[in-house]
Amino acid sequence: MPAEFVISALVTLLVVVDPVGLVPSFLALTHGLPDTAKRNVALRASLIAACILAGTALIGEWLLRSLAISLPAFHIAGGLLLFSIASEMVFGVRIVRQSKQAEDAVEEHVRNIAAFPLAIPLMAGPGAITAVVLLSERATGNAAMLATLLIVIAVVCAVCFAVFAIAPRIGNMIGATGNVVLSRLLGVLLAALAVQFVIDGVRAVLAG
Question: Is the pLDDT reported for residue 56 higher than 90?
């Protein structure tokens, strides 16, 4: 099993899901809740996101075949989508949108904030789902790589839970400026990964 697949999957999902970047949204959503309730929200959100992404890894490619969508086409479309998310991170649009979603959820008194908007769409959003489908395509026919991808998904969601558990301390430690800088750096890295997805898709089309 190529070590680069493990590294690529882990880095891609960590950057797309961006656990640290979700700290402001988590704090806004759980503002005023007791510590036990905050921990329960964090755990449920992480489990829901893990189930969604794992399901995507298992049936994502089958769904593409059912819809007659070629893998190179999805590579290109997925790369463009990831690049769009990366550009939002670099220019600060994503943070603003996440904060707005959090505010809307609180204002509307959403019954289960763990499911929406925390798990969906903040954790297991279009970008994360796209990334998982692209990664699962690389693992086609290799049970060990697919199992590794599922483990990586579990690890990323566990990291989210750990980050949410210490969210108040992280928020105070990195501050608003630190969160902005981190989001910009992760956005640049994600943009490079997105471009590579597009290049892979174009190569597959030209080779075919």
Answer: yes
Q: Which residues contact 172 (CB under 8 A, 6 or more apart)?
A: none
Q: What is the mean pLDDT of residues 120-141?
A: 85
pLDDT tens digit sequence for 148-193: 999 999 999 999 999 999 988 876 777 767 767 766 777 787 788 7
More confident residue, 201 or 177: 201
The residue type found at 165 is A
Cα separation, 104 vs 114, in Å, equals 14
- What type of residue sits at position 4? E
Closest CA to 203 of 68, 72, 74: 72
The amino acid occupying position 183 is S
Spatial separation of the C-alpha atoms in residues 67 and 94, rounded to whole Å:
30
Question: How many domains are contained in the chain?
Answer: 1
| Nearest residue to 62 (alpha-carbon basis) of 157, 140, 6, 150 | 140
Q: Which residue has the tokens 């880095």?
A: 11
Residue 68 corresponds to which amino acid? A
